[in-house]
Task: inverse folding
């Protein structure tokens, strides 16, 4: 069996998995695989078909990019290579090592999802949830799930306020996903938020 057949078998195993998505986006009303679940799906399938993945964060004249190499454990000369452009985020109150770590974590995660064909609603801007959000007008009456506990309309979480929000969330034992109940959060700011919430 060549490595492409092994990858196809790994994808089939993942699609047949009965693993329930543990992540929940309460704002957009969808479930998703957490980073830990993505790792478990990939590791279980890879072990079964005897392949292993290796991730590198590299830089060339065009900038940063991730390189994901799938290696056939039964013939290590057989490999499949995926590459994806990325960047190191500027995250306030963190050092460069933490910023690089955040880039490695998220680039590796999304490249694994691409390589192993793991679909998730939060990456699809044509899902019904996304369409519903984009067609909402200012004249509509606000629903309860669009309001904060104080009855105020949700506002966008700005990057400059993330440190303060993270401090309060940690004190209350919240997870990053819980904060979507109280703020509208862009994809980039949510990535920053998750990285800071993971820092001890």
Result:
């Amino acid at each position: 069996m060549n490595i492409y057949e092994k990858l196809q078998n790994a994808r089939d195993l993942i699609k047949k998995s009965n693993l329930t998505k543990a992540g929940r986006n309460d704002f957009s009303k969808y479930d998703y695989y957490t980073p830990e679940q993505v790792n478990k799906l990939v590791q279980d399938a890879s072990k079964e078909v005897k392949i292993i993945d290796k991730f590198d964060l590299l830089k060339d004249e065009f900038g940063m990019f991730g390189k994901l190499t799938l290696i056939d454990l039964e013939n290590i000369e057989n490999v499949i290579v995926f590459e994806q452009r990325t960047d190191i985020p500027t995250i306030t109150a963190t050092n460069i090592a933490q910023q690089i770590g955040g880039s490695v974590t998220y680039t590796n995660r999304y490249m694994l999802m691409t390589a192993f064909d793991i679909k998730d609603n939060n990456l699809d801007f044509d899902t019904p949830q996304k369409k519903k959000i984009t067609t909402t007008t200012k004249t509509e009456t606000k629903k309860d799930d669009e309001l904060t506990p104080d009855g105020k309309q949700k506002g966008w979480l700005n990057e400059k306020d993330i440190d303060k929000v993270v401090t309060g969330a940690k004190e209350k034992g919240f997870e990053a996903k819980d904060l979507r109940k109280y703020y509208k959060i862009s994809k980039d700011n949510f990535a920053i938020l998750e990285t800071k919430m993971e820092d001890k």
User: Anything to note?
Assistant: The chain has six helices and seven strands. The two ends are 44 Å apart (CA to CA).
